[in-house]
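Input record (one chain):
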Amino acid sequence: EAEGAYVVKADLPGVPKDKLELRIDGDRLLIEGVVTTVMPPQLQSVHAEVRVPRYRRTFTLSRELDAGRIEANVKDGVLTLRIPRQEHARPRRIEVRAG
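The corresponding structure, as predicted from the sequence alone:
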């Protein structure tokens, strides 16, 4: 949690931006990605460490989160999501007056 938002990081090695899909369905956030291996034409893959070439993860979002303002960034195979809290759910300081 940072600055009125939750930050989610997901390792997605081998998933390019164009093969990454993020969706909101009701209160669920769906992350899907397809691994692509780029091989030069003269080479052939003999062994691969990735057994399942697809990532899929679903999260249930709390009502205190503002799903309409999610920010997503992918860099070097790491997806970073910033999910802000609704204004009413953010912590606030209460002023105390004397007298």
